Amino acid sequence: MMCSPFLTMLLFLSISAASAADTKELRVIDFKGPPHNYLAWKPKDRFAELQEKALKGEVKLDTTNDKAFLTSLLAALNIPINSQTLVFSASSLQSEIINPRNPRALYFNEDTYLGWVPGGMVEIIAADPEMGPMFYVFDRLRPGGPVPNVTRSTKCMNCHAGKATRRLPGLIAESLLVSRAGSSLETFRRDVQGHQIPLEDRFGGWHLTGDHNLTPNRANVMGVPNNGKNQIVPVEPGQYSDLGLHLLPTSDILPNLMNEHQMGFENRLVYAIYTLRQLKSDSKGLLGAAAKAEIEERAQELARYITFADEAKFPTKGIVGDPAYAQDFLRDRKMSKTGLSLRDLDLKTRMFKHRCSYMLYTDTWKATPKELKERIYYHMALYLREMPDAQHAHLAPAERVAIRGILKETMTDLPAWWR
Predict the structure, then answer these.
(1) Is residue 361 part of a domain?
(2) pLDDT digits (tens, 9 = 90+) for 10-23
(3) Is the domain of 370 the same as that of 354?
(4) Which residues of 96-147 form beta strands (DSSP E)?
(5) 127-140, pLDDT tens digit by residue?
(6) Spatial distance between the Cα atoms of 135 and 150, rounded to a whole number of angstroms
(7) Is 247 found in the same domain as 312?
(8) What's the helix, strand, coil split of the chain in %, to 5?
(9) Could you tell me the residue range of the domain that residue 223 belongs to?
(10) 285 vs 279: CA distance, rounded Å
(11) Which of 16, 23, 317, 400 has a CA 20 to 30 Å removed from the CA of 159?
């Protein structure tokens, strides 16, 4: 059972939550200007740290060939090779060479994302704890030569700071019916990210391998115009492309699911952080009722997302993920005294056994301002209390108990009233 101070605080805080007015339109934030000054910010992300180590000679990257360079870079960033997914829609700065004959490989961990297409360059997106995604592009590798130069890219903002990411630096993915050239013929999902997107609307322009049990799905096909209509044609992995050019021949659904969840978390949290920073700057730190209501709205949105309240429905047979990726993913489990963790997989009816996001362990969450973080924790507590109301009751009683135990024993920044 929750302790009485916890319940007392919930009752007290519910008064302010009930009075929070909905913000009808999302705030547009100039991330390049003050108080954010994104372009002038010195990044503190995982890739920036790697660059500093490389300059000091503490890290060596293998430039023998593309695959050797990619493998050594992934290892240096602690990104599992088994996180590979393959997308053949013409996207990124290298859209001219991405198509069903030459898919782009994506790799990631909880805060760093790497893209590479055969014959092209390596692209990196790394989450800075305070400013959100930072974008880097390597020059083309010269086999056997020095490590390619890296530039911090602003061209990526054309897509990664648009409507899909609420006009802030963010992570994006699309689902498209693509042509032989990789261009879009139809759009199934755009301008939204997260685990709430129905599985049947995802994966257009992507390869899917393994036992995903998604029937039907939009993966592994392209469109061929025929008499004014788009004829659907199979594009099985390796059918038109040489998978030997990639590190693996797979594009499993499990890393796809994790990547989608992380994008939704990161983009929502970054938007909330920028909103708070802007409001505090505009009011010189004295937040009024309207500002507090806006922060409350962001906190409510994040708490609902963190607890998977709107998670997309799984296929009736569940999903069988790649065991190798699952092993890598579970390697970083933070366990309670009873051996439970937020990374424990379910895959029968949902992604996780304990529906609370493991992204709470990221540096971005750790650096989240206290004013925002405590409001998110408060709204999370509404989902996790012993007897939630109908609006917050999607978690089973035993699951709520398990999540509370995991958080109390693995998190260091819970509010005093939570404990």
Answers:
(1) yes
(2) 444 443 444 444 44
(3) yes
(4) 104-108, 112-116, 122-128, 132-138
(5) 999 999 999 999 99
(6) 10
(7) no
(8) 35, 15, 50
(9) 38-252
(10) 8
(11) 23
